Amino acid sequence: MLSRPEILIVGGGVAGLSLATRLGKSMGKPGKARITLIDKSFSHVWKPMLHCFASGTLSNENDKVNFITQASGHHFEFWPGEVASIDRENREVILSPLLEADGTVVLESRRMKYDTVVIAIGSCANDFGTPGVKEYCMSIDNLVEANAFNEKFRMELLRAFANTSELDIAIVGGGATGVQLAAELHKALEIVGPYNLHAFGKAPPKLHVTLLQSGPRILPAFPESVSAAAQKELEHIGVTVQTNARVAGADAHGFILKDGSYVPAKLRVWAAGVKAPEVTTAYGGLTINRTGQILVNPNLSSIDDERIFALGDCSFIQDDPLPATAQVAGQQAKHLARYLPAWIEHGRKVPGCVFHNKGAIVALGKYNGWAALPGGTVWGGGISHGFSARLAHLMLYRQHQMELFGYYRGLMSCYSDWVETFVRPSVRLD
């Protein structure tokens, strides 16, 4: 062991940043270990809100957590970079060179020693090798991609406005991401309408969103009643929902379906399927499954190396597979934050992590929402919808903020967001 144990956390998503913050308090502050967070970005956003950044209905700086600021206030360190590989024999992670947008090298490749590595790099959309997807489709797996889509969305809206034409958008994937993005795009256009009317003297262009789902219903993780209600709501606001629509390929103008039909779209979004980032194949020969997830024991340690842990979307427990959700990642982060200190300091084995399903929530912008909770009654279980479900979705986000910031700073963040609604546009315009 090193003189002071080195704990490297790779990935600053829901699980990684939560774990770094908690371990910073329990081990970093008293000097029991050196905690270092590694991420290729400089800020964190709550992944279930990425569709709001993509549509432009959320652009507040308060909704991003700067890693440097968080590290400074919570007794851990942050280094920007992407882990290219792991040298398990010498207990080192190798970081790729950090480059500027033009390719200029800012930091050369670096090697960092570790006693324990926790991999929490999340997931990305799975194109299943579908021809044309990588070349012609966008995704919203992270903030960079969400902002890139928003830029394209605003420019295409402007073009459609100037040409008095419609804007066609097709989204592949009827899970929560695709469904919520479809609704949020319509919400954004409703908000921006009065700005266009007063600024340019004419109404905004018509938006035509098509949601393509390969299975028989959207939101397959929810009860059938929720799927049916959500589809009805989407169709009511103008979204075209096609189920049993298997995509055979994509090109620069739309999607080709396996039944031979064609869906034209100026903007094409792929939000179907989940896989771990391809970089897991370079992580020291760790065993991964066919979607790149690292195989772990019930206590979240790799089946190949007890010094390497993986949690959240990039991990897979063979005996008890769990869905790739923020809820799972959050519970696993809390589990490691509780038991890793004793393992590192005293060699006590980390016990198995038991997932407690607290249900699922989906919110269709301002239009509707559903909460499917375990049990038999609405508040103890069952299904609720409408304002209460949308409020519950918002409260999950606020709870995440308070876990990272602390109670009082979290409350101040809520207050700051409320104040800004009076002075800033409610949709991104530039």
From TrEMBL:
Domain of life: Bacteria
Cofactor: FAD
Keyword Oxidoreductase: yes
Presence of keyword Flavoprotein: yes
UniProt-listed Pfam families: Pyr_redox_2
Entry keywords, A to Z: FAD, Flavoprotein, Oxidoreductase
InterPro entries hit by this protein: FAD/NAD-bd_sf (IPR036188), FAD/NAD-binding_dom (IPR023753), NADH-Q_oxidoreductase (IPR051169)
Homology family: Belongs to the NADH dehydrogenase family.
The protein's name: NADH dehydrogenase
Lineage of the organism: Bacteria, Pseudomonadati, Pseudomonadota, Alphaproteobacteria, Acetobacterales
Gene name of the record: ndH
